[in-house]
Design goal:
There is one protein chain. The chain is an alpha/beta fold. The chain has 8 helices and 14 strands. The strands form 4 sheets. A 5-stranded parallel sheet has the order 2-1-3-6-7, sandwiched between helices. Strands 8-9-10-11 form a 4-stranded antiparallel sheet, with no helix packed on it. Strand 4 and strand 5 form a beta hairpin. The termini are far apart. Bound molecules: calcium ion. Calcium ion binds next to strand 4.
């Protein structure tokens, strides 16, 4: 059982989400505004295990809460619910520190699966990170990552990488020079069924490219191979 904070202003959607998540055995605190979500995260002593965060809230942008939590070093997993379809908008979400996002409208079972996967990953993160970390500091193009400390810098300037971004990078690094299929990424990094139809991977690759590549339009390090998958080259 996990303690979840559900931030969603659409009462119908909030109710069905709440029922579905309670049904999974989770304890759900539901709020409908940014102000109440902020108050809940400030007041909550033991901390939530995960936050489901709608981005379009009546009193502001859910991303503000994301950024606020990350700024104070709170890495509670956040799954964003967004009606924003553009790649740039989704990348902005990742930049603010959301770990994953689901685009509305979504299937309830898919969201529940993503929440479960995120909870699993985040409870296993510290040990798996230490065990598989290629070294303390790894450089890929413009990006330098310290997996153990979860710190990264692009051209010397600190950038925040989410749990999923770190996992994706680590996975690609461990297979540098090899072609990694989308299915493998879905199963091993996202812990979703290989058949999942999601554009999440594209968004993550796009964002990583912006951090890694000297010229993201002509990637040198992180290649997309049409119909095959992705390949990370160290040099
Ligand atoms: Ca909304």
């Amino acid at each position: 059982m996990a303690r979840l904070l559900l931030v969603e202003d659409d009462p119908t959607l909030a109710l069905s989400l709440r029922l579905a998540l309670t049904d999974q055995g989770h304890a759900v605190t539901a709020v409908g505004t940014l102000a109440r979500a902020t108050a809940a995260t400030d007041a909550d002593e033991p901390g939530f295990d995960l936050i489901v965060l709608d981005l379009g809230l009546p009193d502001g942008d859910g991303l503000e809460l994301c950024a606020r939590l990350r700024a104070r070093g709170d890495f509670v997993p956040i799954i964003a619910l967004t009606a924003r379809h553009t790649l740039e908008a989704r990348v902005a979400g990742l930049r603010s520190g959301a770990d994953d996002y689901v685009t509305k409208p979504f299937d309830l079972p898919e969201l529940v699966a993503r929440i479960d996967a995120l909870l699993r990953r985040c409870t296993t993160w510290p040990t798996s990170a230490a065990a598989t970390s290629p070294s303390d500091e790894t450089r890929i193009g413009r990006l330098v990552v310290d997996f153990r400390r979860r710190e990264a810098a692009c051209d010397g300037e600190a950038v925040a990488l989410s749990d999923l971004e770190l996992r994706l990078l680590m996975y690609l690094l461990a297979r540098a020079g090899e072609v990694v299929t989308r299915e493998a990424l879905l199963v091993d990094v996202w812990e979703l069924p290989a058949s999942s139809r999601t554009r999440t991977i594209d968004t993550f690759i796009y964002r990583l490219r912006k951090l890694i590549e000297p010229d993201p339009a002509h990637p040198r390090y992180l290649q997309s191979l049409r119909g095959a998958g992705y390949r990370l080259d160290r040099a």
